[in-house]
Amino acid sequence: MWWFSLLVCALSGYITTKKINQQMPIVGELIAVLSDRYVEIHSDTVLRGQIINSTLWFNCLLEMRVKTESRTKQAMWLNKNAVTESDWRRLIREMNTQ
Questions:
Q1: In terms of CB atoms within 10 Å, which of 31, 36, 46, 63 comes out highest?
Q2: What value does the CA radius of gyration of the chain take, rounded to a whole number of Å?
Q3: Of the candidates 18, 48, 12, 43, the residue with the CA atom closest to the CA atom of residue 33
Q4: Which residue has the higher pLDDT, 12 or 30?
């Protein structure tokens, strides 16, 4: 029965990785007005709206839940390597204080 648990864990990890990769733009521009919690991402698609909440995962991935102008909620992931170190620290600091 241990092999079934291993299979479920591996499958769950694979599905989670696919989901994160779909919500993480490969290339693009990030415009953020952190005082207003406004973010705009220009990549394959354009996502703009208010940041509802954010979660830092493993100190290298930032998940931002955004309420768009059409009132839908979407998730966007940002990798630590995508921005400079100083911008990353400022982004994390601002997300934690609000």
A1: 63
A2: 15
A3: 48
A4: 12
Instruction: State the Cα–Cα distance between residues 98 and 94, nearest whole angstrom.
Output: 6
Residues in the chain, total:
98
How is the chain split into domains, by residue range? 2-97
Burial of 41 (0-12, 13-18, 19+ CB in 10 A): buried
Phi-psi region at 54: left, alpha or beta (left = phi > 0; alpha = psi -120 to 50): beta
**What is the model's pTM?**
0.59
3-state secondary structure of 1: coil
Q: How many CA atoms lie within 13 A of 67 on its CB side?
A: 6
